[in-house]
Structure formats: structure tokens, C-alpha cells
């Protein structure tokens, strides 16, 4: 993939510092590729709305200047952005934030998090409102969603920061999870000059494969009623996985440090033939029928794209407690169905029509623009860019194997781990579900680790993480730079990070 680098010059006409002495004066800034639609001062504690992920209250924010704009890099484009500029206490930096799903919203909760930390924050709706829809068939709107909007937003935000504060940001960061993690990887691959540091959480970097996998598993659940695994059996499958592999890291604690090292065959749960009824089913939730065993194997499987030979990742062992009645998470299945309807250009396409060998190739041929799989990170590295990625091993929505496969491919393409680790580190989170939650130590601060790496030249060999329940920390554990894992030293509490070492 050819690296795309666009200059920041020319997006905005000059706005003098004097003209931008107040927030409202930013409304007169002239955009070459769009317009400022509002620039409003927001007093401390005045913003009480909710929005974006999580619906958190925003009433605790300090005073800031809220700027909205519409960017039109092409005549088909309609990219809405917001830039929030602290009135006082600006830390001199920009934080662009990602969003989720098909990205049709400005994430005000994420923007609030940036402002609370003293950042100037920016977010985009990526060029449309809401989720998947007819806009996907418009090549320019699809390009805006896939990559262009994040870049245009970064350029516009930097120009507004310069106009408001009279200086450019000293450092620029991007943080996002899920689809926001995909946006993060796009920024590193396509626009290496946009950000000094990037956090890519649970990244949907292989967007087409994630969709294909969810559809493949859903079809396995629906094709044969006998093969549909009842949700009541997921606990027994998870218990069998833990019995087989939980102690591999030296301690039995209910999470797998390295599911890739776990050799598990669901056939160990095969029901005795005497327990199978006339319909080959069983009321016993502690065992699996032959058809159910095949379905569980399908969930774990990573069949290859017959054209590219790239594995289309299944879910990791240990994630069973997060499975749903049709395998992968509901959002993953919805994304899969929406993507295949886009690929087929048929809003009535159904899962029953899915053919893996044909459709995985067709999806990548038509929708490959959605992926972030370019392994050439040299332009980003050469500028001194730093990339931290993380992914929960128990993620039922975007396979964690996407993250490890991509990292391994980058290492191979760029000549070895030593050449990669100076700029890019991956942290796998045992037990964590999608972007958080689960049974592991899923509370951590990747942005602080990134700041220390970019600004203090302190590379993160491990990142402190904790498990918090009802406001209390009940376990701490280091997250280790992949492929290392946290290993118990052999003595002391297994809930204390001090008793683990990365190796």
C-alpha cells in the first residue's frame, strides 16, 4: 500500500493570533476544504449532555472552546468534526480520539476524557451519521470512513490549535479502541506525519476478516439445529479449557496468559453415547454432542483466505464465557451481515447464502480499503513515531489473533523484532473482553505509557494493570510486551504484580 502523506499547509487560510484572541473569533477561520459551523465558549461545569460511548456525564469539565466544522475534501464528502480547546491549563498537546462500529458520531465522552487531561481534543463522525447504510456504496464516502476523515480531522485540529493558542501542539496523539483501534492503525500506516504517538486498542485492523468470521460461525450455528451449542454449555467448555491450560503460566487463576500455547480439543467433552437421546441431543450441559463439537471447533478455527493465504482468525480459547447464542458477539454479527450486504450490493442478502471460499475473496477484493494491514511502518518509525497496541485475549467481537498475526507480519516484513520494538509494542491482556471487562486485569493507562515513551524516551517493557471490582483493586499484574507473558516467580500472592516477571 502506498503511504499517503498530505501537507497541512493550505487547509486553513491564515488566522492571526490577534483574530483568535477569543473562542468565538475562530468562527471566522476560513477553510479551504470546508467551513467552521460554530465556535462557542463552554463555561466550567456547563456541559451536561451525554454522548458517544458509555453515556458518562460531562458536567465536570473545565472551561473550553468548542469548535465544530464540516470538512469537504471531495465534493461527496460531509465530514463533521469537533475540536475542544481548554481555556486554561492546556498541556500543549493534541489528542485525537477514535470511535466504534461504523463511526457515525462525534464521541463527546472521549473528547471529555482528553480535555480532563489538559489536551486539546478532536473527534470526527467519519463523514456520515449513524451506522452502515447506502453511503457505503459511494466510493468517496467510503474512503472518508476508511481513512481520509481521521487525517483531515488531524490537519484541521492542528490548524485550529495554532490559531487559538498561537502555537502548534508540541506532541500529537491518537487513541482509539475497536473501530477506533482500526483508525489508529490506519493513521500509522497511511499518514505517518499526523501523530507522534498512537494507542490502538483491540483494533479491527482486519475488518473484512472479522466480519467474515462472525458470519461463518453464525452460519454454523444456524445451518444444523443439532450443531447449535446451547449457551448453557459455554461454562463447561470454559472450565475444560481452564483445566487443560490455566496452570501453564505457573498459577491457576482463571485466566490464560497465552492462549496460543493452549492445546485444547473440545472432544474431551464428548457425551457418552448412552446419554444421547433419539434426536442425538442431550439435556446434560456438561458434555457436547458430535455436532456441537464441530461447531466449537469452528469457533476456534482460522481458515485461510484461498487467494491471499492469510488466516481468517477465529476466537481464542478461554473466551467461551463471552460467547453468545450464535457464537461471536452481536455487534460482530451485525457488522458481518452489513459488510456482506455491501459486498453483494444486496440489502436482502442472508447468512444462508454465505460461501466461505468465494465470499472471503470477494469481501477483500471489494472492501479491502476498510482494512489496516500494511506492514510497512518504516515511514512512521523514521519520524520517531511510537505505537502501542493492546488486545484482550477473551475478546468475542474482534479476534485477538488479528493483533498477534499483524504484529508477527510486521516483524517479518521489517527485519526482526529488534527493529520493530523500538517503535511498536503489542500488549495482550489475559482475560479481557472487548476493549475492557472480562475476568482479567483490564484497568490500565496506555496513554501515560505512550507519553513516557514519546516524550521521555522510556519504552514500556511492561504496563501495570489491575482488576477492579466494586471500586476495590483485587489483583494487579504486569501486561508484558508480546510475545512475552507474565510468569509467576513461585512465591508470594498471585494477586500481586510484584510476584510476576515478563519472560
Which secondary structure elements does this structure contain, and how are they paired or packed?
Elements lengths: L29 E2 L2 E9 L21 E8 L7 E8 L6 E5 L10 H9 L3 E5 L14 H27 L5 E7 L1 H12 L6 E5 L5 H17 L10 H12 L44 H11 L29 H15 L11 H12 L10 H5 L3 E7 L7 H14 L3 H5 L2 E6 L16 H11 L5 E8 L2 E9 L5 E3 L11 E3 L1
Parallel strand pairs: 5-6, 5-7, 7-8, 8-9, 9-10
Antiparallel strand pairs: 1-2, 2-3, 3-4, 4-6, 11-12, 13-14
Helix pairs in contact: 2-3, 4-7, 4-8, 7-8
Relative helix content: 25-40%
Q: Give the end-to-end Cα distance, rounded to a whole number of Å.
A: 34 Å
Global structural class: alpha/beta
Oligomer: single chain
Q: Please give the number of β-strands.
A: 14
Radius of gyration: 24 Å
Major beta sheet, strand line-up: 1-2-3-4-6-5-7-8-9-10
Mean pLDDT: 91
Mass-distribution shape = globular
The SSE order reads EEEEEHEHEHEHHHHHHEHHEHEEEE
- Point out poorly predicted stretches: 1-20, 51-55
Largest sheet: 10 strands, mixed
Number of helices: 12
Estimate the strand proportion: 15-25%
Amino acid at each position: 500500500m502506498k503511504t499517503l502523506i498530505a501537507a497541512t499547509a493550505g487547509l486553513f487560510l491564515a488566522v492571526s493570533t490577534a483574530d483568535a484572541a477569543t473562542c468565538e473569533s475562530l468562527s471566522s477561520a476560513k477553510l479551504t476544504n470546508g467551513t467552521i459551523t460554530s465556535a462557542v465558549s463552554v463555561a466550567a461545569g456547563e456541559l451536561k449532555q451525554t454522548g458517544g460511548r458509555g453515556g458518562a456525564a460531562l458536567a465536570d469539565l473545565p472551561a473550553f472552546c468548542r469548535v465544530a466544522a464540516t470538512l469537504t475534501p471531495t465534493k461527496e464528502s460531509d465530514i463533521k468534526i469537533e475540536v475542544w480547546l481548554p481555556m486554561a491549563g492546556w498541556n500543549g498537546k493534541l489528542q485525537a480520539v477514535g470511535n466504534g462500529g461504523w463511526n457515525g458520531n462525534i464521541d463527546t465522552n472521549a473528547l471529555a476524557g482528553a480535555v480532563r487531561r489538559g489536551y486539546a481534543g478532536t473527534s470526527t463522525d467519519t463523514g456520515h451519521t449513524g451506522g452502515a447504510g447506502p453511503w457505503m456504496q459511494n466510493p468517496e464516502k467510503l474512503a472518508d470512513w476508511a481513512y481520509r476523515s481521521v487525517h483531515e480531522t488531524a490537519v484541521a485540529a492542528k490548524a485550529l490549535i495554532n490559531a487559538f493558542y498561537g502555537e502548534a501542539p508540541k506532541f500529537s496523539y491518537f487513541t482509539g479502541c475497536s473501530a477506533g483501534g482500526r483508525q489508529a492503525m490506519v493513521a500509522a500506516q497511511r499518514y505517518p506525519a499526523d501523530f507522534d504517538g498512537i494507542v490502538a486498542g483491540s483494533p479491527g485492523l482486519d475488518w473484512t476478516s472479522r466480519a467474515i468470521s462472525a458470519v461463518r460461525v453464525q452460519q454454523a450455528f444456524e445451518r444444523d439445529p443439532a450443531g447449535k451449542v446451547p449457551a448453557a454449555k459455554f461454562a463447561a467448555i470454559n472450565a475444560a479449557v481452564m483445566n487443560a491450560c490455566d496452570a501453564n503460566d505457573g498459577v491457576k487463576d482463571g485466566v490464560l496468559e497465552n492462549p496460543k500455547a493452549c492445546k485444547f480439543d473440545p472432544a474431551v467433552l464428548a457425551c457418552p453415547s448412552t446419554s444421547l437421546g433419539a434426536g442425538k441431543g442431550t439435556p446434560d450441559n456438561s458434555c457436547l454432542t458430535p455436532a456441537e463439537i464441530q461447531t466449537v471447533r469452528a469457533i476456534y478455527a482460522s481458515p485461510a483466505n484461498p487467494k491471499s493465504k492469510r488466516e481468517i482468525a477465529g476466537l481464542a480459547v478461554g473466551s467461551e464465557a463471552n460467547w453468545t447464542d450464535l457464537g461471536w458477539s452481536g455487534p460482530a454479527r451485525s457488522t458481518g451481515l452489513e459488510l456482506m450486504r455491501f459486498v453483494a450490493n444486496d440489502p436482502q442478502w442472508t447468512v444462508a447464502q454465505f460461501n466461505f471460499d468465494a465470499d472471503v475473496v470477494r469481501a477483500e477484493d471489494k472492501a479491502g480499503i476498510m482494512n489496516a494491514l500494511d506492514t510497512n511502518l518504516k515511514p512512521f518509525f523514521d519520524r520517531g513515531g511510537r505505537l502501542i497496541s493492546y488486545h484482550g485475549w477473551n475478546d468475542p467481537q474482534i479476534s485477538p489473533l488479528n493483533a498477534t498475526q499483524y504484529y508477527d507480519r510486521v516483524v517479518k516484513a521489517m527485519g526482526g523484532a529488534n527493529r520493530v520494538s523500538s517503535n511498536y509494542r503489542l500488549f495482550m491482556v489475559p482475560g479481557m473482553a472487548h476493549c475492557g471487562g472480562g475476568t482479567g486485569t483490564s484497568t490500565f493507562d496506555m496513554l501515560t505509557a505512550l507519553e513516557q515513551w514519546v516524550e521521555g524516551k522510556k519504552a514500556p517493557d511492561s504496563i501495570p494493570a489491575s482488576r477492579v471490582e466494586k471500586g476495590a483493586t483485587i489483583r494487579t499484574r504486569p501486561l508484558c510486551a508480546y510475545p512475552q507473558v507474565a510468569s509467576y516467580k513461585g512465591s508470594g500472592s498471585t494477586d500481586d504484580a510484584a510476584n510476576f516477571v515478563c519472560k
